[in-house]
Amino acid sequence: MTTDSPLFDVLVIGGGVNGTGIAMDAAGRGLRVMLCEMNDLASATSSNSSKLVHGGLRYLEHYEFGLVRKALIERELLLNSAPHIMWPLRFRLPHRPHLRPAWMIRVGLFLYDHLARRERLPGSCAIRFGPDGPLQPHITRGFEYSDGWVDDARLVVLCAQAAFDRGAEIKTRTRCIQARRKAGLWHLTLQNTVTGERQQCRSRALVNAAGPWASALFADTLAMPSPKQLRLVKGSHILVPRLHDEPAAYILQSQDNRIVFVLPYQQRFSLIGTTDVDYEGDPAKVAIDDAEVAYLCNLVNGYFKQHTSPAEVVWRYSGVRPLIDNAEGEAQQASRDYSFELDAPEGEPPLLSVFGGKLTTYRLLANDATTTLCRFFAEAGPAWTHTAVLPGGNFSTQARLAEALRSHYPWLPDALLQRFVRSYGTLCHRFLQGCEQLEDMGEAFGDQLYQKEVDYLIAHEWAGTADDILWRRTKLGLELNDEARERLQRYLQAPDTRPPTS
Question: Where does the record place the Alpha-glycerophosphate oxidase C-terminal domain (predicted)?
């Protein structure tokens, strides 16, 4: 490797929420950053979550008061940082006295309300369920509390955009195949996973934020033993036609002490999950099995009047949670907290590895990780993300933004407008500006996706395939028919029609 190869202050391996969060934070402190991701952004764990910004009510049962408090503090910060992709959500917990006594739930909710300051979310309360509600008649009492919803994959993309806006280089479909210390620097070989092309670069510090692959990266790329092993836990979800018309989510207790959420999703569906099953094997090949589908359906059918079945599942997905391995207890009891391992021999460039973590605490994790790295960079600026607004989030409320968009683009169908508000916030002006009618949006891929939006996703959000667009940048994979998908795929494969990328 020559001295002509690019030199970075920090190179981050992993394009999930932790990796992009660290890249954003470090770039905002004035460091020169590169992030490489072997697939698409948010292509693994970070797009296969329960899509919640929450403190983790059930973690109180395992006495993880510190983790819950951290998550509750972050919940408030995150809801303020991205009002387009995050919003408050009320949860209803039907009381089943044979599973958990009412006093235990009341104590847990009291702690949940008071472990951290609440500024925008109402507290918990006891409620009664009437005969006209969605639950079965014998369930008459319960509790209600607040948490938040997040579009997980878009959160990752927005962090990557924020990093890019501050000078970071974002390389998707790029695997780090070798990293070695030499002459006080990391010397790295990166390979494009589509073309096979290789490039060399150097970095003053290296971050291992590879998620489920964090331990394996040591043997595969770094040629050194991993300081920690991860406990891989599979969490699976199913999507079914909407089970009720209420705006609230439900949190259901199971006989085996697991908790399952029933969440309103994309107007027409209910998202049900998650399971907690220990997993061995390649995280890229994780998949929900029939037993998990049956488990989720049976649990829901024990609570709701409207039953569902495996035959009604319209979408299913699984993610692998990389949890800190303490080799004890059931999978659902494993801690969702995070830890770092800093390897920095005297005179050698540092390696910071991230183990564990959860979506809600990604900003705090990134802040702590970047602060740790900044010991090696005297020129680095101060912490800043606690007041940061993610790209597109510079507006007061979704209702006011929708009103402004109607004024600017009166021709925009309401369903499209609402999707743009909840996906892009003010960023949608980038592809709507100059359009005076729907036809100006270019080629239509079905009635909900247009060329202008696709071009924007390619040029500014690192989208390269139909799946990138239909499942991670949007959720239109649930809406578009086969003909529309094929038309989109043809467009993406025609290089002359595609705009240059960021």
Answer: 385-491
